[in-house]
Amino acid sequence: GENVEQHPSTLSVQEGDSAVIKCTYSDSASNYFPWYKQELGKGPQLIIDIRSNVGEKKDQRIAVTLNKTAKHFSLHITETQPEDSAVYFCAASRRGTSYGKLTFGQGTILTVHP
Amino acid sequence: ETGVTQSPTHLIKTRGQQVTLRCSSQSGHNTVSWYQQALGQGPQFIFQYYREEENGRGNFPPRFSGLQFPNYSSELNVNALELDDSALYLCASSLELAGGKHEQYFGPGTRLTVT
Known about the structure:
Strand content of chain B: over 45%
Low-confidence stretches of chain A: none
Largest interface: A-B, 27 and 29 residues
Radius of gyration of chain A: 14 Å
Structural class of chain B: mainly beta
Number of helices of chain A: 0
Largest sheet of chain A: 6 strands, mixed
Oligomer: heterodimer
Low-confidence stretches of chain B: none
Mean pLDDT of chain A: 93
Helix content of chain A: under 10%
Order of helices and strands of chain B: EEEEEEEEEEE
């Protein structure tokens, strides 16, 4: 089955800096890669996603890049703010009868210091 | 807010007991997936229900079972609770169509503690 590795496990940055979180996946058939933000006591919130027919996607301060050949994808947050502090999860899934099955990485605790 | 609601928010059970968790999907969504999130870990896929049928299952034993109702709400049932079942149980709803619009939106979760 699919295996998703996420790095780093913790990331500490100063307000205004950029943050990058990287994930690798094992199943070459995976074609959908969402990123979730989870704040304390809440469920994961979808912040951006990318499909395998696209190499990059941007939404304001957040961008995701995908390298299908190397089977890795990354989340980039620019101009970080204290409210960006949370746990971030990458995930992967593939089309088919279990299309909705998301395999998650282990999470990255992002701390943005004012 | 995603519009996905779960009940109860917290639950304490004793080993060996049974528990039922409930989820109301976002309006218009026909698919519900359940995940288990242990402390400090990413969510693990339990199973998915699409139009009232189980549509994929993760590596969980048969004592984890579910239902989806005609209004697309769902239940997760766990029998013979074990201490390792203590976790946050997340429900995610999505709209599955031919051509596959499949973003999953999560509820706030139910925190289950087994003593």
